[in-house]
Specification:
The chain is mostly helical and 396 residues long. It is built from 15 helices and no strands.
């Protein structure tokens, strides 16, 4: 039986840009939680750490889609080095300010400038689109990228936290900075697969975020990111409370394994269910699986709860990206994809920051109530999205 994922890489140059893109996209998932861990270690609390990370997340929300709009107009080779240089340079300055004990306001300034990092997952998807536009392989390519995004957001945070704890406080964000520099440099050198600049039709110069359907998808991605951010931070705090700090990495790995396996299987399936309905089902399942988190009383129980919670993360992300490809014009595809990844990034940082405040004031397990709130938002956004997106779908 043919492997649909292996067949994707028959296209020349595909392996190179996927590998480079994977390295280059890791910083967006590592930086926020890395800043939280770094500053919490150095300052003994989560308030300042959460504020700086939230600043980075909000700056990303503003900057990354604008970077993608510039890419759509001027090309990846011209825009990505400049954006990565500005964002990476600001992150380096933030680390230096932390090491030199500079005033707190400098941390917020450079965290905001670091938000200029490009959304590399959107750049990779744009290359797949040029290779397989109008062909069945494109759906498989989007599924692969959604799984890789999920791997990035599940593996990146514990990797960053582990480096900060095991090596030195700045190690996690520093590793993210090095990955950004290496990944983007190698990625832009792959000229043969770089998408051409798409002309914008007259009257379509505005941002794609004006679309109501896109806003609902972004809201759902933000809420899903909050759940992931809560799991990241509360797992660390919970493991420390249990006297087993190293177990946090095991818990987060279980989350990654469950979500990745579900995403890989889902991406290989050829389902006849309409995408809007699949999206609704994924949102409902994601919301329901936040409930077991509240019942965790030990490391084993927490590992089982996060495994269940992770099962529907990647499949829902896969469907959301497929819906974006259907909704937005080709000339705005990079921007549309970026908005979803940005929403997820914001949610991860806000979930981490918000749960950090709850942990400081009410104990480790209290952070999971924020995950429950995220689940409620996911449920509402999924149902509302189904109402909007299912118009025109054929009845069963």
């Amino acid at each position: 039986m043919a492997n649909p994922y292996r067949e994707l890489f028959n296209a020349p140059g595909s392996r190179a840009f996927v590998l480079a893109g994977m390295v280059a996209r890791m910083p967006i998932s590592m930086t926020g939680i890395g800043l939280i861990t770094m500053l919490a270690q150095l300052h003994g609390g989560y308030a300042l750490a959460g504020g700086v990370a939230a600043t980075f997340a909000l700056a990303t929300a503003l900057c990354a889609p604008q970077v993608s709009r510039l890419v759509d107009r001027f090309g990846q080779g011209r825009v990505l080095p400049l954006a990565a240089g500005l964002g990476g340079g600001a992150l380096l300055a933030l680390l230096l300010c932390t090491r030199l004990q500079a005033p707190y306001w400098t941390l917020f300034v450079f965290a905001a400038l670091a938000g200029c990092m490009p959304s590399m997952s959107a750049m990779v998807r744009a290359r797949w689109t040029e290779l397989y536009r109008g062909q069945p392989q494109l759906q498989t390519a989007y599924a692969l990228e959604s799984v890789l995004d999920e791997v990035c957001f599940i593996i990146g945070p514990p990797l960053s936290v582990g480096l900060c704890v095991v090596l030195f406080p700045e190690a996690g964000p520093l590793a993210a900075l090095l990955m950004l520099a290496i990944g983007v440099s190698v990625f832009v050198l792959q000229k043969a697969t770089e998408p051409p600049v798409h002309p914008h039709a007259e009257g379509q110069g505005g941002s794609i975020i004006r679309s109501g359907e896109i806003r609902l998808l972004v809201l759902l991605m933000l809420a899903m990111g909050i759940i992931v951010g809560v799991v990241d931070v509360v797992s660390v705090a919970f493991a420390q409370q249990q006297g087993q700090p190293a177990a946090a990495s095991i818990v987060l790995s279980v989350y990654a394994i469950g979500s990745c396996l579900a995403g890989i299987v889902f991406g290989a399936l050829k389902l006849s269910i309409p995408l809007p309905r699949l999206f609704m089902y994924g949102g409902i399942a994601t919301a329901v699986t936040t409930l077991p988190l509240l019942l965790a009383s030990n490391i084993l129980g927490l590992a089982l709860a996060v495994f269940v919670a992770g099962l529907f993360f990647a499949p829902t992300l896969i469907v959301a990206m497929a819906l974006v490809e259907r909704i937005v014009p080709a000339a705005k595809l990079t921007e549309g994809l970026t908005w979803l990844v940005t929403g997820l990034s914001i949610g991860v940082a806000l979930g981490a920051a918000g749960s950090g405040v709850l942990v400081d004031h009410f104990g480790a397990r209290s952070g999971f109530w924020l995950a429950l709130v995220g689940g409620v938002v996911v449920l509402g956004a999924a149902l509302q999205s189904y109402r909007h997106l299912s118009r025109g779908e054929p009845a069963d």
